[in-house]
Amino acid sequence: MRIKQIAGLPLEIEVYQELIVQLRFSIIDFLLTEEHMSEKKLFTEFPPLSTDEWEAIIHEDLKGADYSKKLIWRNIEGIDVKPYYRAEDLQSLSHLESMPGKAPYLRGTKTDTNDWLIRENICVKDAIEGNRLVAELSKRGVGSIGFELNANASIDEEWMNQLLNDIPAEITEINFLAGERSMEVIEVLNENNIRIEGSVDYDPLSYFMQHGVWSRNEATAFSIGKEIIFASRDWPQFTSILVNGNLFRQSGANLVQELGMSLAAGAEYIFQIARQGVELSDVAENIRFQFAVGGNYFMEIAKFRAARYLWSKLQSGYGIDEKEQSPMLIHVETSTWNKSGYDAHTNMIRTTTEAMSAAIGGIHSMRVGTYNEALGSTDAFGKRIARNQQLLLKEESYFDRVIDPSAGSYYIEQLTHAMIDAAWKLFLEIEDEGGFLQSFKQGFIQNRIQQMAQKRDRQIAERKEILVGVNQYPNSGELLEKAPHSSAGNKALEDMPLLSPYRGAEAFELLRFAADRYSKVAQRPKAFMITMGNLAMRRARAQFASNFFACGGIEPIDNNGFPDITQAVKAFEKSKAQIAVLCSSDEEYEHLAPELKKQLPDYATLVIAGAPACMEQLQASGINDFIHMRMNVLEELKKFHERLSITA
Fold this sequence. Notes:
Blueprint: E1 5-6, E2 9-10, H1 11-31, H2 39-43, H3 51-62, H4 67-71, E3 73-74, E4 80-81, E5 117-124, H5 127-138, E6 144-149, H6 157-164, E7 173-177, H7 182-191, E8 198-202, H8 204-211, H9 218-231, E9 238-244, H10 245-250, H11 255-274, H12 280-285, E10 287-293, H13 297-317, E11 329-334, H14 346-361, E12 365-367, H15 380-395, H16 410-432, H17 436-441, H18 444-461, H19 506-518, E13 526-531, H20 535-550, E14 555-557, H21 565-575, E15 579-583, H22 586-599, E16 605-609, H23 615-620, E17 625-627, H24 633-643
Parallel strand pairs: 5-6, 5-12, 6-7, 7-8, 8-9, 9-10, 10-11, 11-12, 13-14, 13-15, 15-16, 16-17
Antiparallel strand pairs: 1-2, 3-4
Helix pairs in contact: 5-6, 7-9, 9-11, 11-13, 11-16, 13-14, 13-16, 14-15, 19-24
């Protein structure tokens, strides 16, 4: 019989596949007949196991290893995460009694939807052009606009009328990112009898945290807050005070710190503005929170749920009755801290999962950053992708139609509980220091963030926290013409450190860009892999070493293997590389490395891939460069840059 090819498979194989499928359906039909549908037949073979029984099996499999070290994950937030959770873990959680649309709002602020507004910001240089852009964005799914005002813009009646002329109905929210000029915006809107839904972002605390001084003075800063609230009190769905948790996060804070410190800043606004003669509930109603959303997927979901719960709890602490409480209004922006300028398209993957976290956690509005923001510029393509990421979550995944999608998840409910406890504990610590403002003046806020930032920087340098394309799996063929955006940092005052946003990738990117610039005036430095001996070990170590040097902009040259040292040295000299990396097994290093060192030219730097048991012996023979998993990659790369005279 001739075998015919159908869809790339022999006919006989397709026939067998069809028979197998038919057999499977026959078995299913048989099992679903009445005589085989009893609980006795289907489930008695799998009796329920208690947690103690599960734990006994786990301990047996661990064979004496420490359970807490092997299976308990202590994350950067200081929360211990177990390897699994069961229904019994939820029995003591009081927050599960929450209902959607009702205080304490843990399960969301709405009773019929999980929808949010897609936001895009526009830098307004010309009012007419800004108005045209709004009309275009309304056709592309944007429902919330943020007008970034030029610091020197003349905000007058004509300018405002041109900007807001015939705003499409699809734009349901207008936000003015005016900062210290917020009152000026409100006055012009009132003079023109214009009422909008949206916000201004008056946030004197953020200004103070970044500059160390008030734009005017402390008393005036909070009295202006009162005036803005009074001036816009009759406007529907409008907030005038911003708590910018994003600032903490981009300065290196973890999720617990971002939430706890944001709550404390919100409490400071309630306290300070209420002292000016505004009702406590009126102040709370006028506050909008802006949070970052990063790559810690499940923790981010828990953070947003915990945030609403704690804001309600805080209002209760001020004596605001639940019926008068305002649910936390959350605007989210994808974090810039974990974004990269190199391999920038990877940022699309990051922002997709981040947007999912925010949507599941429940928010009011969201702006997804463009994939190339870290390069200091954006383009139409990047903005379109950023919008469409949210549109896909709505129109294809229906994330906007399910209220509190994560409710009942054993894991997320436990994380929510842990986040509530940890953030509230931090909030109380700040209150014990005299409140947010006083604790900042004393350096408590900055010191906590700085300690966390240093810890996170160290984890990136040691590759315990991975930034794909930066400290792991770099695209070694990529060459940037322009340096990725880097924060110059806010200079600390003599008696008070300040908050300074930055990106975790900056240190690696600056190192790599120095190599990019160097390659324009000289040959790019190269690391030549001398692969010998054990096939599995040499391949694994060559891949590790290639990845290692590429993170610093040093071009790796990999090889399939050399039969002897003489041929390897000839190939090395021909490559004009400066670094020779010996990749083999620990057992073979003992005799290969000394012989290789003798034959290499004087200009070559010999590096051993790994930390072999014979390291001390090799060091005694003059071999001192080893690269391995346990080292600080960033610091080692800096040393190689100095040795090769690579400067920016």
